[in-house]
C-alpha cells in the first residue's frame, strides 16, 4: 500500500439509524493533523461520527461529533445540524484552478510541517 493511502482515515461504514438518518463512523486518523483551521489538536484515538438526517425531500442536516479520549474529556459537537439543500439540476459548478505559487506557499507553511517534512 502506498504511504499516501495509509494516511486516509478509515470509515468503518455507515448505519441507518432510521428511515431518515444515516451515521458514518471514521477512525485511523494521523495525529499530526489538526481538526480545523483554528488548530485544535487530536490524537490517534480520534473517532469522528457524521450524522446525516433527511429533513424532507429537498433538505439534509449534518452533525459532526468529535470523540478523542486522549485530548478531550468527553465527546463534543463540532458542527450541529448544518443545513444542505438540493440544488437545481441545471446548476453548474465551475472548475477551480489552484495557483501554483499559492500551493507551494501553503505546502511550505502548513502541509509539509504537518507531515513531518
What percent of the residues sit in helical stretches (DSSP H or I)?
A: 10-25%
The strand order across the widest sheet is: 1-2-3-4-5
Give me the oligomer status.
Answer: single chain
Mean pLDDT rating: 82
What is the beta-strand fraction?
Answer: 35-45%
Topology:
Elements: H1 3-6, E1 10-18, E2 21-27, E3 47-56, E4 59-67, E5 76-85, H2 100-114
Antiparallel strand pairs: 1-2, 2-3, 3-4, 4-5
Can you give a write-up of this model?
This protein is α+β, with helices and mostly antiparallel strands. It has a domain at 9-88. Helices cover 16% and strands 38% of the residues. The protein contains 2 helices and 5 strands; from the N terminus they run H-E-E-E-E-E-H. It has helices spanning 3-6, 100-114; strands spanning 10-18, 21-27, 47-56, 59-67, 76-85. Strands 1-2-3-4-5 form a 5-stranded antiparallel sheet, with no helix packed on it. The radius of gyration is 17 Å and the shape is flat. Residues 1-8 have low confidence and may be disordered.
Short description:
With 117 residues, the protein is of the alpha+beta class.
Key terms:
flat, disordered N terminus, five-stranded antiparallel β-sheet, single chain, 2 helices
Amino acid at each position: 500500500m502506498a504511504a499516501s493511502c495509509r494516511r486516509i482515515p478509515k470509515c468503518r461504514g455507515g448505519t441507518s439509524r432510521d428511515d431518515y438518518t444515516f451515521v458514518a463512523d471514521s477512525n485511523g486518523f494521523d495525529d499530526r493533523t489538526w481538526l480545523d483551521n483554528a488548530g485544535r489538536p487530536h490524537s490517534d484515538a480520534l473517532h469522528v461520527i457524521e450524522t446525516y438526517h433527511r429533513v424532507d425531500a429537498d433538505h439534509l442536516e449534518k452533525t459532526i461529533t468529535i470523540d478523542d479520549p486522549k485530548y478531550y474529556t468527553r465527546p463534543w459537537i463540532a458542527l450541529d445540524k448544518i443545513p444542505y439543500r438540493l440544488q437545481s439540476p441545471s446548476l453548474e459548478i465551475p472548475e477551480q484552478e489552484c495557483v501554483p505559487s499559492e500551493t507551494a506557499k501553503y505546502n511550505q507553511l502548513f502541509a509539509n510541517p504537518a507531515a513531518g517534512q
